[in-house]
Amino acid sequence: MTNVKLQVAHQVPGRVRMKIPSAKGNPELLEQMKQTLSVIPGIEEVIVNPATGSLVLHYDTDQHDEFHGHLKHHTGGHHPPPPSNEIDALASKIQQEAEFLAENSHAARVVVDFFKQVDAQIKTGSHNTIDLKIVLAVGIASFTILEVGANAATPVWVTLAMFGLNHLIEANRPEGADPDETDETATANAPA
To answer: What is the 8-class DSSP label of residue 63?
Structure first.
């Protein structure tokens, strides 16, 4: 099976769809691959489609890491594991969309290659602890905080202080006193 070229067309936790160009119109090869992949721990179902030359693997998400370790072994390591959280899933989807656009446009290819290069430089400079998606997230959050903080009419601490002072005044008001009545009495008894 290591001689067969596999392409991961789509993956989310619990489901992987693989395209096998050489299996298009070849149900025997797909059935052989189905039998081989069905023994992987965590596999719940393998669906083959000879018309498209694809396999869909449904697996138990509780065995996510074990499943992908075995799948990597069975396929010769031809696929990356799916994203394990929503941020990675979104980044993966954006990357797939960018690659699709780059295949059909020279300008898109230049932009995609530029950002790949920037990402590689960030990873190299940080010894693979930081990547472009982290830098972008921190940058957007910092920009938002600075912009909102600089343009806010009333800072949060002032709002909280006013709220606290208002409750302190209400707590020290005599029982049964109407706030409007207390203000009028104070005004009437004030020295002229």
So the answer is: G
* Element containing residue 47 per DSSP (H, E): strand 43-49
Q: In angstroms, how far is CA 139 from the centroid of its own chain?
A: 16
Contact predicate 50/24, CB 8 Å? yes
Token match 């207390």: residue?
182
* Residue 109 to residue 99: CA distance in whole angstroms: 8
Closest listed residue to residue 36, CA positions, set 68, 64, 2: 2
Under 8 Å between Cβ of 18 and 46? no
User: Which pTM was predicted?
Assistant: 0.41
Q: What is the mean pLDDT of each run of 10 residues along the chain (192 residues)?
A: 69 83 86 86 88 87 75 60 64 79 84 87 83 79 72 68 78 63 52 52
How many angstroms separate the CA atoms of 182 and 189, rounded? 11
Task: Using DSSP, state whether 129 is helix, strand or coil.
Answer: coil
